[in-house]
Design brief:
mainly alpha, 0% strand, elongated
Length: 120
């Protein structure tokens, strides 16, 4: 878990019963933005693969890519990502998988896939 996400999570835990509804929403919005930023920073812009964790050298996984594809829809709805950028990121990932080896074809030996972070 990233440092920023854990910080926002702590702020949510610190909200008491006497706090206003508006403050709760602001903190939850912050948490959502910080959580969403994971997909912006841990996705390889060239192939759409997403790191499993933020630790240096962490491999990408299909699960993380699936979560990113779902998160892009929410990100557009929440104004965290433009529709055009969400479409671009989605197509990059889908094209990578479309062009990758599949059942019935030779599969290359398991290798670590580069998940160089993007700058957005």
């Amino acid at each position: 878990m990233s440092r920023t996400t854990s910080g926002a999570r702590q702020r949510v835990a610190d909200i008491g019963c006497g706090d206003t509804h508006r403050r709760r929403h602001r903190v939850l919005d912050e948490l959502q933005e910080e959580s969403f930023s994971y997909f912006l920073h841990e996705t390889n812009r060239r192939n759409g693969l997403v790191r499993d964790k933020t630790a240096k050298g962490s491999p990408a996984s299909i699960a993380a890519v699936g979560m990113a594809l779902s998160a892009y829809v929410v990100g557009v709805e929440r104004g965290l990502l433009t529709r055009a950028e969400a479409v671009r990121r989605t197509l990059v990932a889908l094209r990578f998988f479309w062009r990758s080896p599949r059942a019935g074809r030779p599969t290359p030996p398991a290798t670590r896939v580069s998940t160089t972070t993007s700058s957005t």
